[in-house]
Amino acid sequence: MRALSRFFWTTLAVIFLIEAWLWSHLEPLVAAVVRAIPLARVKAAIAAGVNRLPPFLVLFVFLIPMAVLFPFKLAALWFLANGQIVLGVATFVLAKLVGVAVAAFLFETCKPKLMQMAWFARFYAWFVRVWTWAHGLVDPIKARIKGWMARLRGKARSGFARRFAWLRGRARRRDEAV
Known about the structure:
Blueprint: H1 2-36, H2 40-52, H3 55-58, H4 63-81, H5 85-114, H6 118-177
Helix pairs in contact: 1-5, 1-6, 4-5
């Protein structure tokens, strides 16, 4: 039972960290897209609009991307239900990536207003604690996997290097014989 519980919590932590990783890695990508495409005015307009809203209404800003992307997630389910697995998975993954990227952009824009609400500041602090807990649970596992992979790469390289040296020596002997 203890092993099952540990597996459950580790799986939950991995899922949480994947979401956090997507969030942190897509936000710079979205920022780069905003810089590349002339959307600076749109970003400024969104920031100005958010600054005019009271903090509790800023929460509704996050509903906009969810409402826009919901039909795409339904389409992904429809594709899956009709046997178009690759298209369904691709549609869902794309909707998920876009959703996380837009949410990251909106969160950075809305964070100062949101942190004015005491309950949200407490929730954010709790979220950071969960993020730290998840890393504490998953990081040792990642370190073991990285160690295994390094040893496998070392063995593969040493085997490859021996074979390559043998082939090279054989080619040289053949060239000398000619």
